[in-house]
């Protein structure tokens, strides 16, 4: 990776850089989540791949997707709380 | 350059010029920490989903929620335990 010459950036340029960075991180995050959901829910819902996705499989995928995101939120909350607790102990 | 960041920052080369640019560096550090936090959640969720969720239902029941919560907490416990024990082993017999 080339090193960035940031000493000459104006305030507006810095803001733009940070905005772009945040957008790219958000995109990468969404892609990671989609990839995980596809993989995990395929595994749970498609036990025998047929010639098409039947309606029960589609329902299972939709439900699995919602639950995976619920689970993500639980993990996020528990992990965030734990980090705060560990910080207080230090 | 490396002294401006914590030791594991070789993946993020940044030459801030002569004056230095604390503000931008701090903003980048915050974003980096957020990204690491998110990456860790993905990893925990991947792992604990396999352990705790059998058949995804119409909602996550309280038993599953407790399982996920315990899974994350115990995973961190194990990680800390292994790290501490490894450090102790290193002290006793340096490699």
UniProtKB/TrEMBL annotation, chain A:
Lineage start: Eukaryota, Metazoa, Ecdysozoa, Arthropoda, Hexapoda
Protein name (record): Mitochondrial import inner membrane translocase subunit
Primary location recorded for the protein, binned into one broad class: mitochondrion
Residues annotated as transmembrane: none
GO MF term set: metal ion binding
Protein origin, superkingdom: Eukaryota
Annotated Gene Ontology cellular component terms: mitochondrial inner membrane; mitochondrial intermembrane space chaperone complex
Role played: Mitochondrial intermembrane chaperone that participates in the import and insertion of some multi-pass transmembrane proteins into the mitochondrial inner membrane. Also required for the transfer of beta-barrel precursors from the TOM complex to the sorting and assembly machinery (SAM complex) of the outer membrane. Acts as a chaperone-like protein that protects the hydrophobic precursors from aggregation and guide them through the mitochondrial intermembrane space.
Pfam families listed in its UniProt record: zf-Tim10_DDP
Automatic annotation (TrEMBL), chain B:
Subcellular location: Mitochondrion inner membrane
Membrane topology (UniProt): Peripheral membrane protein
Family matches, as Gene3D superfamilies: Mitochondrial import inner membrane translocase subunit tim13 like domains
One Gene Ontology cellular component annotation held by this UniProt entry: mitochondrial inner membrane
Superkingdom as given in the UniProt entry: Eukaryota
Main localization of the protein described in the UniProt heading: mitochondrion
Function: Mitochondrial intermembrane chaperone that participates in the import and insertion of some multi-pass transmembrane proteins into the mitochondrial inner membrane. Also required for the transfer of beta-barrel precursors from the TOM complex to the sorting and assembly machinery (SAM complex) of the outer membrane. Acts as a chaperone-like protein that protects the hydrophobic precursors from aggregation and guide them through the mitochondrial intermembrane space.
Domains: entry comment: The twin CX3C motif contains 4 conserved Cys residues that form 2 disulfide bonds in the mitochondrial intermembrane space.
Protein name (Swiss-Prot/TrEMBL): Mitochondrial import inner membrane translocase subunit
Lineage, uppermost ranks: Eukaryota, Metazoa, Ecdysozoa, Arthropoda, Hexapoda
